[in-house]
């Protein structure tokens, strides 16, 4: 694999713009190569004409190349790199190309100018990130002070006047010299993290990445210097309290109706320890990514300079790489030392000194691709297609639709199985979204907050959806076979129970506590669903409101679930008739079920408005309120009919459709920016073909308007009403799948613009400084 592909693959997606523009530099080198080639072609004709004359002129002379060889041994100075000092002791590098006067020198000068821009950009980003992690490490030091003091207090509650002696391993930040960015020196300028840069093959670069994190070690001198660092336990405890985070129903209710500040108990301390483990784990991943960022950029500079030497036939690589190695990204050792201290601190305090267990928690689990997933996905796909054909042949061979009871029979059974059809289609759309998110490097695992190594890929989701499709089609085919079999006429209730058994199996798999069928993903879904149901008592995260938006596209599936309760709970299946609409309670819940998803999203928007104080959430809540009104009026028209209800349904649905369409395209997708680099789109696009975005906007408008068919009820004689409703529901699921891709693309680009590559985990303890105390006084 070429280095360019490895380099792109190893990039942190949100930091793409901060890396060396390797492809841009290669394009400049191609211009230099094409110019050199054309120059040689022109010179070749002149040389061939003079070759014979030169041969005759020098045929009698002997040629001694000693002077030429000696001149070749002396490296001509091609470049001169100057350092410009900026405010805040920041350095900028400017390279002067000394061969500019030569023919074609302007191309090489532009190459070094672009190279300097990349070096300055990389150093600036690295400096800012190192400063950021040092500040974060200082905060973690205070968190560790609080944790250790509270542990001592819990073990010895009656002891107050105790000095807290801190071992050097308890500190995340190691005292540095006057120079904040400590350097390693310039002795090993040709080494990259212990590896000679020029000897790193391109195909091995990706394998080196997994081993660049240094092994932890402690310095004896540092222990002796810090052994006397003691603090008074009472002083620390007086300055520490648990952070008040309204992330659960209990803490939310306490925060609204009363004081949630309570003395720290053992349960609270344990919760704080777990939260601090997450903070350390996320901080460690940030340090690892920063280390990889440094390594890959240094390697990119080395590779591009080797290419330059090969194309331009000039010896400039060694001089320029000395400058790169002496720059901040090549000489700073802060990240290395922070990695070591985090490892030592975490192993000691969170894994009881067991380094293997501690490193297992800190280092991300690498997900392995399994061939059996691909095999069973293909197998279940083939089985699903075969079962669909079998169902069609069964209906046609028995001529069910031509019989008197056929239409009524299908009207009873289709709504029961359509629930599983909607779920399968939604999962297939999600699988397709994951595939395209991966293809266009949308970091969906970070956006959703999946635990690294446990997230489902497109193949796993496709496997689950095809497996459910096989199970549903087998039950449906069995249902048809038992209903049509004359020997089962005396056991008519048996086929009616099959959909209930299928629903029971699906629910059992979903809530199964055993570690089978992707338990972590199932529990993640259940937790997000529970947060949606309990809105606004839980803090609203992106997975929660993303799932809430998807629930608004599954109203018909939720109504099918309501039908299950009515059909089997009220005994309708014994009569083989669906008369649920004759029950007043069912009709009342028919209204409520359609409103619930939009109401939950409305509450989530209200919660975010109260917490974030951003008006956009208020407008979003208004959008969902208009949609709720439209759904209620439309449902009333569906049950009661009448011209008045039809006009009200048309007006309310039209307003809601217009508002939702505008919000989808402008707010959620960030498109229709008139003054952007890409007219009527946005400045940054991940999909290279602009027509895809315009097509998506048109399709979104068409599918948004499609639900108006439920109000207008065009006379479609060839389709039953249930079939029309099912088709429109499927189109809404497809629209939601398209919406999901561009919604996450826009979210990802927002993260890229802010270089936000790691989730922010709140600290469990609040530590009052002297400045805070003075302010309170």
Query: How much helix, percentage-wise, in residues?
Result: 55-70%
Radius of gyration, Cα only, in angstroms?
A: 34 Å
Mean pLDDT: 78
Query: Which shape, going by the Cα principal axes?
Result: globular
Uncertain segments: 58-75, 175-230, 773-777
In DSSP terms (H or I, runs of 4 or more residues), the helix count works out at 30
Report the structural category: mainly alpha
Strand content: under 5%
Largest sheet strand order: 1-2
Termini, distance in Å?
A: 64 Å
Main beta sheet: 2 strands, antiparallel
The number of strands is 8
Domain SPX: 1-322
GO biological process, one term: phosphate ion transport
Domain EXS: 581-775
Keywords: Cell membrane, Membrane, Phosphate transport, Transmembrane, Transmembrane helix, Transport
Brief summary of the model shown:
With 777 residues, the chain is mainly alpha-helical.
């Amino acid at each position: 694999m070429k280095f360019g592909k490895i380099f792109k693959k190893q990039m942190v997606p949100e930091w793409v713009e901060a890396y060396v523009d390797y492809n841009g530099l290669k394009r400049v080198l191609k211009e230099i190569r094409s110019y050199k080639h054309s120059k040689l072609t022109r010179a070749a004709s002149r040389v061939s004409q003079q070759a014979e004359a030169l041969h005759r002129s020098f045929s009698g002379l002997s040629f001694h190349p000693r002077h030429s060889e000696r001149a070749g041994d002396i490296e001509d100075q091609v470049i001169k790199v100057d350092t410009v000092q900026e405010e805040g002791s920041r350095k900028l590098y400017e390279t002067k190309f000394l061969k500019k006067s030569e023919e074609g020198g302007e191309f090489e000068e532009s190459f070094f100018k672009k190279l300097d821009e990349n070096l300055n950009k990389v150093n600036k980003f690295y400096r800012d990130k190192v400063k950021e992690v040092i500040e974060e490490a200082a905060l973690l030091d205070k968190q560790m002070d609080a944790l250790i003091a509270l542990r001592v207090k819990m073990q010895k509650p009656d002891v107050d006047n105790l000095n807290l002696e801190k071992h050097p391993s308890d500190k995340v930040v190691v005292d540095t010299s006057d120079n904040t960015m400590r350097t390693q020196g310039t002795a090993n300028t040709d080494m990259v993290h212990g590896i000679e840069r020029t000897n790193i093959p391109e195909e091995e670069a990706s394998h080196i990445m997994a081993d660049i994190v240094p092994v932890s070690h402690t310095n004896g001198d540092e222990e002796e210097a810090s052994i006397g660092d003691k603090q008074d336990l009472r002083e620390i405890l007086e300055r520490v309290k648990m952070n008040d985070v309204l992330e659960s129903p209990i803490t939310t209710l306490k925060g609204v109706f009363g004081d949630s500040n309570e003395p720290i108990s053992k349960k609270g301390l344990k919760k704080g320890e777990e939260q601090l483990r997450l903070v350390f784990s996320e901080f460690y991943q940030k340090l690892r990514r920063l280390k990889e960022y440094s390594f890959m950029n240094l390697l990119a500079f080395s590779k591009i300079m080797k290419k330059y030497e090969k194309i331009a036939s000039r010896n400039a690589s060694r001089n320029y790489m000395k400058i790169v190695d002496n720059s901040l990204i090549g000489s700073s050792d802060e990240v290395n030392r922070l990695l070591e201290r985090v490892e030592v601190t975490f192993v000691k305090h969170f894994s009881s000194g067991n380094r293997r267990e501690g490193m297992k928690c800190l280092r991300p689990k690498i997900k392995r691709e399994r061939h059996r997933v691909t095999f069973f996905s293909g197998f279940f796909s083939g089985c699903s297609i075969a079962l669909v054909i079998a169902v069609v042949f069964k209906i046609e061979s028995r001529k069910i639709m031509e019989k008197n009871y056929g239409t009524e029979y299908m009207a009873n059974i289709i709504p029961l199985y359509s629930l599983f059809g909607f779920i399968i289609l939604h999962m297939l759309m999600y699988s397709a979204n994951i595939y395209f998110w991966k293809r266009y490097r949308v970091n969906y695992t970070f956006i959703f907050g999946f635990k690294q190594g446990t997230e489902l890929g497109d193949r796993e989701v496709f496997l689950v959806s095809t497996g459910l499709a096989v199970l549903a089609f087998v039950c449906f085919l069995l249902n048809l076979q038992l209903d049509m079999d004359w020997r089962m006429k005396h056991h008519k209730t048996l086929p009616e129970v099959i959909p209930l058994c299928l629903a029971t199996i699906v629910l059992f798999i979903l809530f199964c506590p055993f570690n089978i069928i992707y338990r972590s993903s199932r529990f993640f879904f259940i937790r997000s669903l529970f947060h949606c149901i309990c809105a606004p008592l839980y803090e609203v995260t992106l997975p929660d409101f993303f799932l809430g938006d998807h629930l608004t596209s599954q109203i018909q599936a939720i109504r099918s679930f309501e039908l299950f309760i009515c059909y089997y709970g009220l005994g309708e299946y014994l009569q083989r008739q669906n008369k649920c609409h004759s029950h007043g309670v069912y009709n009342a819940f028919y209204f409520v079920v359609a409103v619930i998803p939009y109401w939950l999203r409305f509450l989530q928007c209200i919660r975010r408005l109260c917490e974030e104080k951003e008006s956009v959430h208020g407008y979003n809540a208004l959008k969902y309120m208009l949609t709720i009104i439209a759904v209620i009026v439309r449902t009333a028209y569906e049950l009661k009919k009448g011209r008045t209800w039809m006009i009200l349904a048309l007006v309310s649905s039209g307003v809601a459709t217009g508002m939702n369409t505008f919000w989808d395209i402008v707010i959620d997708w960030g498109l229709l920016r008139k003054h952007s680099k890409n007219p009527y789109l946005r400045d940054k696009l991940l999909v290279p073909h602009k027509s895809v975005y315009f097509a998506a906007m048109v399709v979104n408008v068409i599918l948004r308007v499609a639900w108006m068919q439920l109000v207008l009820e065009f006379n479609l004689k060839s389709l039953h009403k249930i079939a029309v409703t099912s088709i429109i529901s499927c189109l809404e699921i497809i629209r939601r799948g398209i919406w999901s891709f561009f919604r996450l693309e826009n979210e990802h680009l927002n993260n890229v613009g802010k270089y936000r590559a790691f989730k922010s985990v709140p600290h469990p303890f609040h530590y009052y400084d002297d400045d805070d105390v003075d302010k309170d006084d």
